[in-house]
């Protein structure tokens, strides 16, 4: 599956952005999806994940974004979103979309190694 992120940009602290990740292929609806980010000089870190099921949706977030970011998906449009609010300069990073290619996976992973396919990333910069 190919993943293409969009929606990044420059925003002031306290502002909002919505990232999108468009996926190719017919089996998007069977994959758990995640968002990660990587700041300069730091390791890639987990942000949020959502399971494959539209009827029984589960999500999980890192502590640093919980209550501010919301992950969602549209299995008709083959797209996963990350709505980011109350942004702070520490949110500045390249944001990556990722897919767990184990179809109908029960475990919603949060580690880099749980995901098999990655997008090219989109830059988010939050100014103070």
Distance between the termini: 37 Å
Which radius of gyration do the C-alpha atoms yield?
Answer: 14 Å
**How confident overall, as mean pLDDT?**
96
What is the general shape? globular
Helix count, DSSP H or I runs of 4 or more residues: 0
Tell me what portion of residues adopts beta-strand conformation.
over 45%
Number of strands: 11
Output the structural class. Answer: mainly beta
Can you walk through the features of this model?
By secondary structure, the chain is an all-beta fold. Helix content is 0%, strand content 46%. It has strands spanning 3-6, 9-12, 17-23, 32-38, 45-50, 59-61, 69-74, 79-84, 93-100, 117-118, 122-127. Strands 2, 4, 5, 6, 9, 10 and 11 form a seven-stranded mixed beta sheet that branches. Strand 5 and strand 6 (59-61) form a beta hairpin. The termini are far apart. The mean pLDDT is 96.
């Amino acid at each position: 599956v190919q993943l293409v992120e969009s929606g990044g940009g420059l925003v002031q602290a306290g502002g909002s952005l919505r990232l999108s990740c468009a996926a190719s292929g017919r089996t998007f609806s069977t994959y758990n999806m995640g968002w990660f980010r990587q700041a300069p000089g730091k390791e890639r870190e987990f942000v949020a994940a959502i399971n494959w099921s539209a009827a029984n949706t589960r999500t999980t977030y890192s502590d640093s974004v919980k209550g501010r970011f919301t992950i969602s998906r549209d299995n008709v449009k083959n797209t996963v979103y990350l709505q980011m609010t109350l942004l702070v300069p520490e949110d500045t990073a390249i944001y990556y979309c990722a897919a767990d290619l184990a179809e109908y996976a029960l475990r919603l992973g949060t580690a880099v190694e749980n995901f098999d396919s990655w997008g090219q990333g989109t830059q988010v910069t939050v100014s103070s």
